[in-house]
Amino acid sequence: GPLPEGERGTVVFTGYRADLPTVYAALDVAVLASRSEGIANAQMEAMAAGVPLVTTPVGLAAEAMKAGQDYVEVERADPELLAKAIAEALKPERAGRLREAGRKAIQAFSIETQVKNLEALYLELAAKHWLGTGA
User: Fold this and answer.
1) Pairing outcome for strands 30-32 and 53-55
2) DSSP secondary structure letters along the chain
3) Bridge partner list, 54
4) How far apart are CA 44 and CA 46, in angstroms?
5) Rounded CA gap, 10 and 76, in Å?
6) Is the N or the C terminus of the chain less surrounded, counting Cβ atoms within 10 Å?
7) What is the pLDDT of residues 87-122, one digit of tens each?
8) CB crowding 85-123: b at 16 or more within 10 Å, else e
């Protein structure tokens, strides 16, 4: 949970980790303060793990998520702005809403959802352009 005022937390630079579910389970908040990203797997992983996300408007957050609802957005990687956003994301009620919203939002990108969407597209195309076997 949030640290009492005046206390400092610990930052650990672990290097490569193969056990990301364990890592995400230990987090109170995930922060991505990049200037640019492609897909930004860290955003998706944090949201799927139910970790409140604080991020600059890059990657999936900028493309397909709702700032303020699915995650806390920081307009730029400014230390003061990041600190305020992290404090917001750590408030128990806010953190609970972010965990729930993030998990729900990321379901649209799950393998199961993508397979269903692709199957529906194939069925729609087959119906429009009957691709019979000639039999």
Assistant:
1) parallel
2) -PPPTT-----------S-HHHHHHT-S-EEE--S--SS-HHHHHHHHTT--EEE-S-HHHHHHS-BTTTBEE-SS--HHHHHHHHHHHHSHHHHHHHHHHHHHHHGGGSHHHHHHHHHHHHHHHHHHT------
3) 31, 72
4) 6
5) 23
6) C
7) 999 999 999 999 999 999 988 888 898 899 999 999
8) bbebbbeeeebeebbebbeebbeeeeeeeeeeeeeeeee
Q: Which residue reads 């806010």 in tokens? A: 94
The token duo for 49 is: 């793990």
Two tokens, residue 74: 């920081």
Residue 73 pLDDT greater than 90, yes or no: yes
- The encoded tokens of residue 36 equal 């640019």
| Cα→Cα distances 11→8, 14, 21, 58, Å | 10, 9, 18, 23
Integer-rounded Cα radius of gyration of the chain: 19
